Amino acid sequence: MTTPAKNTVCLWYDGSAEDAARFYAATFPDSFVGAVHRAPGDFPSGKTGDVLTVWFTIMGIPCLGLNGGPAFKHNEAFSFQVATADQAETDRYWSAIVGNGGQESACGWCKDKWGLSWQITPLALTEAITDPDPAAAKRAFDAMMTMRKIDIAAIEAARRG
Q: pLDDT (tens digit, 9 = 90+) per residue, 32-75?
């Protein structure tokens, strides 16, 4: 086994850590599944030989998927924020997550089918809501507050007034 990263995000799953890791690896660049470890004995949510942990990387971030069972669920207190370059990239990631059993939320947030939250955030949105002109920033922010998936053209139009 290779030495794990000094700091790793541990994500709790109810038996689907490997499926989730493989989905993330197929969806995002600089992502891969590193190792799948099976339980050497029975555990509260599984049996000997079941997948216990999965080491994987999402966009360069080291993660450990733990098949811990149904006791804990993902929530919006933790999310991955993905900065996108344009509408095509925004649409691609949004569609991959929502279209694979996930669900839309507000302001560029969505959840994958495992309940993990994602913020699909175009760079244009970040630039617009931090505009040095407070009125332009507010217009862009107010536009964002009405959206699910971010529409860059609508954000830029609102920013311009």
A: 999 999 999 999 999 999 999 999 999 999 999 999 999 999 99
Instruction: Give the DSSP letter string of 28-95.
Output: STT-EEEEEEE-SS-BTTB-TTSEEEEEEEETTEEEEEEE--TT----TTSEEEEEESSHHHHHHHHH
User: At a CB cut-off of 8 Å and minimum separation 6, what does 40 contact?
Assistant: 48
Tell me the pTM: 0.94
- What's the distance, CA 76 to chain centroid? 11
Q: State the first-to-last Cα distance of the chain, in angstroms, to the nearest integer.
A: 56
